[in-house]
Amino acid sequence: xxxxxxxxxxxxxxxxxxxxxxxxxxxxxxxxxxxxxxxxxxxxxxxxxxxxxxxxxxxxxxxxxxxxxxxxxxxxxxxxxxxxxxxxxxxxxxxxxxxxxxxxxxxxxxxxxxxxxxxxxxxxxxxxxxxxxxxxxxxxxxxxxxxxxxxxxxxxxxxxxxxxxxxxxxxxxxxxxxxxxxxxxxxxxxxxxxxxxxxxxxxxxxxxxxxxxxxxxxxxxxxxxxxxxxxxxxxxxxxxxxxxxxxxxxxxxxxxxxxxxxxxxxxxxxxxxxxxxxxxxxxxxxxxxxxxxxxxxxxxxxxxxxxxxxxxx
Length: 313
Ligand SMILES: [Zn+2]
Known about the structure:
By secondary structure, this protein is an alpha+beta fold. The protein folds into 2 domains: about 1-245, Hsp33 domain (3-Layer(bab) Sandwich), CATH 3.55.30; about 250-305, CBS domain Like. The protein is about 40% helix and about 30% strand. The chain has 11 helices and 13 strands. The protein has helices spanning about 1-10, 35-45, 45-65, 120, 150-160, 200-210, 215-220, 225-230, 250-260, 265-275, 290-310, and strands spanning about 15-20, 25-30, 75-80, 85-90, 95-100, 125-135, 140-145, 170-175, 180-190, 235-240, 245, 275-280, 285-290. A hairpin with a 6-residue loop joins strand 8 and strand 9. Helix 2 (about 35-45) crosses helix 3 (about 45-65) and helix 10 (about 265-275) runs antiparallel to helix 11. The longest helix has 21 residues, at about 290-310. The chain is globular and about 70 Å long. The protein starts with a helix and ends with a helix.
């Protein structure tokens, strides 16, 4: 049994999109244990921050299914009044996400029920912002108030009031109390289509309490098996299957253009006084070092491109 259990836990992350209730309700489900574990390792997250950032990453990965082209981006920001500070997550299409929390090492005592106190960490008031940057269109920005700091409820409220979309969202991250390792991370979004009949909405209400057990189920079984169990007899139809990942798109190349944009004066100053520069990517916690020579090379390159531009103008 133990062997079997371990092999399940080591299976790849997966995101499944489909329909249930006779094609009248959209469903997105994710098993993102590895994704959340990677975030924990990169940012050295405390237990409560693993749960908070983990829930945001799961939600952001599920929302990435709305992105259409390779350059589309989605950013979710929770700015609560709790001690962990802002949580920022960005998605590319197909469930590729990155994210950070401002104070990743803040730890809080568990709740009376022995659960990680995500609400106290995030804060019970503040704002949730969703930015969709789709090609050929002006970026869309939606905002709503934080209602509980539990993140799933905050997104449910966001969809209902900001996008007039009724929905049910579950997000759960289970963390080993001793080691802090991620045992399971799962999420689910249910969104009735506009013509969804009333009896389906009623039936949906009876399914919702069961969803709370998803992350516990994922400790022992695959996402497919969990969905089969949760929605048994409700006509689940799979439409798409993706492999979500925590992956940052930063690189030294990209940061050279960031430096170049500072301008020659600033770069010369950095080279002369600081003898180099250090840039830090918040999303993956990586530091990029630029030597004095490298800075002079960037100055030279900007001068050349400027001259070329002048020659062509
Ligand atoms: Zn990065």
